[in-house]
């Protein structure tokens, strides 16, 4: 594909993704900085896109660059309008925050369309948010629920156990966030179906995480982030929106999603159903295969699967990128592995299960 055409497609995909993220801001929880983090993520995405437009100047005509610039400005305006709509002024300090040496296009302190410092919270509002974040139940009355509703699922998962398989209920959670775990086999049960407002798996090593049941029998994630994961098997389940996969090494991922963006990953097998082209950047040793039949939702209308139409945005030359390939029939894991081995077998450790699915890759 011509570099100009390839960048155009990349730009349009990024814009669509950022628009989705802006549209979802209103539904992101404001407690414990979750909404602020989402806003910062959008700002960083807009900044990155502007830098990419500058880098592409050598092969894009001036008219196209003008169109790209206008589109980025529209994204900034849309973000500003959304922030103004969802941000209660009484909970923010109108004080200029200290900026580092890096000038971030779109950051509040550099963007005159935003009130200076309008994204920093005052001490009272922040303290209240921290108290609310500790509470994952939503069947409570008043601003703060009872102490009985407070659960730290990650702390519970970290406790020693004689059980090979952990099944945290997440029944009192709004979101599923599993972080800083190692050598665990985690299977989320049906009770976690009410906690799929957002999902993230971060800093995992040597783990098996299966989220297929709550996202199939309950509601799919609107978006999902997988970051800093190694030597693990992730059954991510169903995602209605984008999946961001960053910094994953020597692992296997199974997911159904509308859009998949993969960054800085090495030696990862992805079993995928995706209704748009998967996108990789700064990756190597990526292998793709179709979603195993056992993870398809029965009765769901069949949608186009573009699992093998991968775009490598760091490979602008003609021909196939060397950074990804498809798994051959001989390399694809047998269906019985997914149905018999992955759910766990009596007395089988996490390491033994990972070895049976081919982690690490030989």
From TrEMBL:
<feature type="region of interest" description="Disordered">
    <location>
        <begin position="93"/>
        <end position="142"/>
    </location>
</feature>
<keyword id="KW-0175">Coiled coil</keyword>
<keyword id="KW-0963">Cytoplasm</keyword>
<comment type="similarity">
    <text>Belongs to the TBCC family.</text>
</comment>
<comment type="subunit">
    <text>Supercomplex made of cofactors A to E. Cofactors A and D function by capturing and stabilizing tubulin in a quasi-native conformation. Cofactor E binds to the cofactor D-tubulin complex; interaction with cofactor C then causes the release of tubulin polypeptides that are committed to the native state.</text>
</comment>
<keyword id="KW-0007">Acetylation</keyword>
<dbReference type="InterPro" id="IPR017901">
    <property type="entry name" value="C-CAP_CF_C-like"/>
</dbReference>
<dbReference type="Pfam" id="PF16752">
    <property type="entry name" value="TBCC_N"/>
</dbReference>
<dbReference type="GO" id="GO:0007021">
    <property type="term" value="P:tubulin complex assembly"/>
</dbReference>
<dbReference type="GO" id="GO:0007023">
    <property type="term" value="P:post-chaperonin tubulin folding pathway"/>
</dbReference>
<dbReference type="GO" id="GO:0005737">
    <property type="term" value="C:cytoplasm"/>
</dbReference>
<feature type="domain" description="C-CAP/cofactor C-like">
    <location>
        <begin position="189"/>
        <end position="315"/>
    </location>
</feature>
<dbReference type="InterPro" id="IPR016098">
    <property type="entry name" value="CAP/MinC_C"/>
</dbReference>
<dbReference type="InterPro" id="IPR012945">
    <property type="entry name" value="Tubulin-bd_cofactor_C_dom"/>
</dbReference>
<protein>
    <submittedName>
        <fullName>Tubulin-specific chaperone c</fullName>
    </submittedName>
</protein>
<dbReference type="InterPro" id="IPR006599">
    <property type="entry name" value="CARP_motif"/>
</dbReference>
<keyword id="KW-0143">Chaperone</keyword>
<dbReference type="InterPro" id="IPR038397">
    <property type="entry name" value="TBCC_N_sf"/>
</dbReference>
<feature type="coiled-coil region">
    <location>
        <begin position="8"/>
        <end position="35"/>
    </location>
</feature>
<dbReference type="InterPro" id="IPR027684">
    <property type="entry name" value="TBCC"/>
</dbReference>
<dbReference type="Pfam" id="PF07986">
    <property type="entry name" value="TBCC"/>
</dbReference>
<dbReference type="GO" id="GO:0015631">
    <property type="term" value="F:tubulin binding"/>
</dbReference>
<dbReference type="InterPro" id="IPR031925">
    <property type="entry name" value="TBCC_N"/>
</dbReference>
